[in-house]
């Protein structure tokens, strides 16, 4: 299901998962994609991909240590996205920029929201 893409592409509390570290990282991912829209450079895209990987690792650590039931399918969604990101490079096309925006919005609201209240 496609959720609306915020314009400008910035985090707001409609994306809150109520774990401060994860909300901070999500805000950083919005900023990273926003930055690619402002300056569509390899430097900005590389920084975004690093932030994505760091965030996924941290989120997965929390899910794993909380024995979160949907860990495996959630990690699979992360791995697929990392693979997709690896196939892209700057300058990103408009379609790919929108793909990244839509993926993040849909992932947070559709997948990340399922762990709300279930992580330690
Ligand atoms: Fe996630
Ligand atoms: Fe996340």
Task: Provide structural commentary.
- The protein is mainly alpha-helical and 120 residues long.
- It is 63% helix and 0% strand.
- The chain has helices at 20-38, 42-65, 71-86, 94-110.
- Helix 1 packs antiparallel against helix 4 (94-110) and helix 2 (42-65) runs antiparallel to helix 3 (71-86).
- The protein is globular and about 40 Å long.
- The model has no long low-confidence stretch (mean pLDDT 97).
- Bound molecules: fe (ii) ion (2 copies).
Report the mean per-residue pLDDT as an integer. Answer: 97
Write down the CATH class.
Mainly Alpha
CATH architect. name: Up-down Bundle
Helix share, percent: 55-70%
Alpha plus pi helix count: 4
Count of beta strands: 0
Low-confidence residue ranges: none
Radius of gyration: 14 Å
Terminal residue distance: 28 Å
What's the domain count? 1
% residues in beta strands:
under 5%
| Major sheet size, sense and barrel closure | none
Small molecules bound in the structure, each named once: fe (ii) ion
Shape: globular
Structural class: mainly alpha
GO molecular function: iron ion binding
Domain Hemerythrin-like: 19-118
Organism: Dimorphilus gyrociliatus
Binding site for Fe cation 1: 26, 55, 59, 112
Quick tags:
single chain; 4 helices; 0% strand; 63% helix; mainly alpha
Indicate the topology.
Elements: H1 20-38, H2 42-65, H3 71-86, H4 94-110
Helix pairs in contact: 1-2, 1-4, 2-3
The structure holds fe (ii) ion (FE2) (2 copies).
Question: What's this, in brief?
Answer:
With 120 residues, this protein is mostly helical.
């Amino acid at each position: 299901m496609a959720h609306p893409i915020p314009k400008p592409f910035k985090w707001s509390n409609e994306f809150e998962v109520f774990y401060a570290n994860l909300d901070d990282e999500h805000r950083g991912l919005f900023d990273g994609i926003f930055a690619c829209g402002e300056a569509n450079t390899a430097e900005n895209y590389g920084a975004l991909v690093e932030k994505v990987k760091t965030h996924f690792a941290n989120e997965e650590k929390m899910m794993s240590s909380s024995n979160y039931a949907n860990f495996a399918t959630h990690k699979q969604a992360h791995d697929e996205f990392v693979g997709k990101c690896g196939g892209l490079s700057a300058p990103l096309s408009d379609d790919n920029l929108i793909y990244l925006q839509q993926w993040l919005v849909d992932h947070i609201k559709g997948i990340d929201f399922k762990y709300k209240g279930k992580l330690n």
